[in-house]
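Let us work through a complete example step by step.
Step 1: write down the sequence.
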Amino acid sequence: MNEELYRLEAVSYTYNAQTALRDLTFTVSQGESIAVLGANGSGKSTLLKILNRLIYPTSGAISYMGVSMSEAGFIGSTLKCFRERVGFVFSEPDVQLFCPTVFDEVVFGPLQLGLSSAEAAQRSAELLSMLGISGLKDRPPYTLSTGEKKKVAIASVLANNPDVLLLDEPTNGLDPRTQVWLFELIESLKGLNKTCIMSTHDLSLVEDLATRTLVLDESHSLAADGPSRDILSNKDLLLAANIIHEHTHRHGDVVHIHSHGPFATHDEHD
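Step 2: predict the structure and record it as tokens.
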């Protein structure tokens, strides 16, 4: 059995008295590929920020490898080890790109981890080559397209060789070709027993890459947690969570029900 990484017990979070998450309880094990599925505003990004210790639960408890992630206790060498092992890719890459060039961006993390300049440069060069973006290394990040910025943001996180990768809406703003690139990258990381947790409302991402799915509903609660195949086949669940929708129209005695999501349109006769 793979090692348990995260344990959440009745975790809730509020922003200025507005509930963002409500009583979430679940665990995450090493090597899992998990999608966090929900409508806009359901709390997906908030959950990933809690998993990355960018914010703290308003109530409830969360631990990483058996150690409480409380503000008071998760400090010093424990926090340093956590930062080395867990990487976070924001939905908007501009949030995390701040260095003068792409190469500076990617080499920054390894240098902070204590690698020598030569080691950090070699790791960064190899990673840029692996991701197919060596040609961007001398470009300022602000001159890049959205897809290129996303690639650089991912590279800057992978440069630290994390065990856990948290991806917030990773397909946002990506053209089809870059989405394929991202899917292939995540698939390769799964093969290395990396733990991937992705927030999304992109059902193709769930179907192709996640073996397990958490569904957050519009009350910010955990509506379901199970194999992705079972979640995606549960039309009533996805409708109730506002992840898919359907509309009905009539042609004579034939009623057409159109589902927008992983379900085919079907007809019903009166």
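Step 3: interpret the result. Confidence is low (pLDDT under 50) at residues 255-260, 262-270.
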